[in-house]
Amino acid sequence: MHACARLLPVACVLLTTATARASEHPSLAETYRDQASQIVGAALTSDHAYSRLSELCDGIGHRLSGSKQLELAVEWAAASMRADGLDVRLQPVRVPHWVRGRESAEMVEPRLMPLSMLGLGGSVGTPKRGITAPVVAVSSWDMLDSLPDSALRGKIVLYDVPFTTYGETVKFRGNGASRAATRGAVAVLVRSVGPTSLRTPHTGSLRYEEDKVAGDNAAGGNLAADNVAANRIPAAAVTIEDATMLHRLLDQGHTVRVRLQMEAKKHPDVLSHNVIGELRGRERPEEVVLLGGHLDSWDVGQGAHDDGGGCILAMEAVRIIHQLGLRPRRTLRVVLWTNEENGLRGANAYRDSLGSAVRNHVAAIEADMGVERLAGFGVRVEHDTSDVASRERHVNAVARAREIGTLLAGLGGDRITEDGGGADIGPLMKLGVPGLAHRTIGERYFEWHHTPADMLDKVDALELRKHVAAMAVMAFVLADMPARLDDP
Fold first, then answer.
1. Omega into 268 within 30° of 0, i.e. cis?
2. Whether 68 and 174 share a structural domain
3. What is the C-alpha to C-alpha distance for residues 85 and 350, in angstroms, rounded to an integer?
4. In terms of Cα–Cα distance, which of 423, 433, 359, 400 is closest to 21?
5. Is residue 486, in this structure, part of any structural domain at all?
6. Beta bridge partners of 415
7. For residue 205, what is the DSSP state?
8. How many C-alpha atoms does 335 have within 13 Å on its Cβ side?
């Protein structure tokens, strides 16, 4: 018998047990209906969230790690939460400081045409006069691997890979430069990771393979020679339109040559901060329900959906709870992480600061999928399916979250799935903290994600209010209910 088949009876017993326990007591929805109504009413009748998001996006703008704008956002967030009546502190974090500089790409053969591009975060730059080389196009790792080194040496590799899912397609952005460099390529162009575009390139991080890296481009010396020796080659994203055009020309038998110029450079790490604001619990202040998003963004657009909106949801949720005079049993803690986009330094620093106190984290909610129409929450306790105890914790957490979810039906947020998680709460979840992911329909998120188009005009003010309401209800009940989320 397959292992999964053997475990089905166990799962059924756990689910039945959880359901039976729930039927013995008033449901969480019944217990918290009045408070939820207050919270929803306050959120839906306030434009404070949109005004605050405008302050962040229009007033400060994009917020890349190491930039002055990110530190302005840190100061703004701390001052805003202090004005809301929260206890606020800044947690120091050393973060990477990569600067894009001027950059351009153009096709020079078979005709002259500028290409719409964005250098990938962390990329090295080109020599001062740029790199001009023939293009070789591939659409998969297998296609790359099938080519002899002689076909790639001295070439610019174009990864023209159609979008399937973000998790699958982003691998070419993350690993494409190193894999091409080992075969002798001098640069890479990556088709933007998204389903569609209007000639809007998508940036994002790449990773140079550590075992092939001899230094970084901030070390001085001969930049071009140092990078070649270290197998670090420049990498940029081009639009879907330009990638497919280049590929078509190659398929038609044309020689395609591109000139790439990038001033990208990595500087020494600089000081940044996680911003932490708390509404202290009335009975069990040592126990914490965490909610947050990442304050940094890429250096294009405004980071409105990724992840300004997520930060605002967390800030506004706790502001409204406090404004209504609702003080839960446990502490509500807003964490606005720094450096999610190109390092996760903030998430790791927060985890490392906890020590054994991580056990006091009842749940961690992350909002980092934009603020399109609300869908609900994903919930997960990391577990081994063969371990009955850890599986029971997961089942309990999902069952309780689904009870809370019924309070969100009027907002369209009652879909509770078993797939919670996120980049910034991932380090906590690995230590056993139940993780919740704020979910949207995700219909257009990857059209704007990491592009110059991720600006405030893409955010619907009414939908933002619904998100705040849902986040506030979920966080309040998790912090106030007698049992912990994953308790038996």
1. no
2. no
3. 22
4. 400
5. no
6. 376
7. B
8. 27
Active site residues: 340
Task: Identify whether 488 is part of a domain.
Answer: no
> What is 250-263 written as a DSSP string?
HHTT---EEEEEE-
Asked whether residue 487 is domain-assigned, the answer is no
| Cβ(273)–Cβ(73) below 8 Å | no
**Which domain covers residue 171, as residue numbers?**
101-263
Are residues 40 and 147 located together in one domain of the fold?
A: no
Given a contact cutoff of 8 angstroms between Cβ atoms, the answer to whether 396 and 22 are in contact is no
* 463 & 437 share domain: yes
CA 322 to chain centre: 27
User: What token pair was written down for 207?
Assistant: 């990773």
- Shared domain for 241 and 329, answered yes or no, is no
Positive or negative, the Cα torsion across 62, 65, 70, 74?
positive
Distance CA 260, CA 128 (A): 10
Radius of gyration from C-alpha coordinates of the chain: 24
Per-residue confidence (pLDDT) for residue 384, from 0 to 100: 79
Question: For the stretch 431-462, what's the b/e string if a residue is b when 16 or more beta carbons lie within 10 angstroms of its beta carbon?
Answer: eebbbbbbbbeeebbbbbbbbbbbbbebbeee
Residue ranges, the chain, pLDDT below 50: 1-22, 211-224, 229
> End of a domain among 263, 278, 298?
263
pLDDT at residue 228 in the model:
53
Task: Using CB atoms within 10 Å of the CB of residue 134, give its burial: 0 to 12 exposed, 13 to 18 middle, 19+ buried.
Answer: middle
Q: What pLDDT does residue 385 have?
A: 76
Burial class (CB in 10 A: 0-12, 13-18, 19+), 124: buried
- What's the pTM value of the predicted model, to 2 decimals? 0.91
Q: What was the pLDDT predicted at 226?
A: 55
pLDDT confidence of residue 215: 36
Q: What is the pLDDT of residue 227?
A: 61
Comparing C-alpha atoms, which of 392, 487, 488, 435 is closest to residue 7? Answer: 392
Beta strands 265-279; 257-262: pairing state? unpaired
279 and 326 fall within a common domain: yes
User: Residue 15 has what pLDDT?
Assistant: 44
Q: In 272-324, where does DSSP find H-type helix?
A: 309-323
β-bridge mates for residue 106, sequence order: 114, 259
Q: Are 449 and 442 in contact (CB under 8 A)?
A: no
**What HEC string does 361-419 produce?**
EEEEEECCCCCCCEEEEEEECCCCCCCHHHHHHHHHHHHHHHHHHHHHHHHCCCEEECC
Domain match, 76 and 106 both: no
CA distances to 273, 332, 360, 373 from 357, rounded to whole Å, are 20, 15, 5, 35
| Whether residue 122 sits in one domain with residue 60 | no
CA distance 328 to 313: 18
SS3 state of residue 265: strand
Total count of domains within the chain: 2
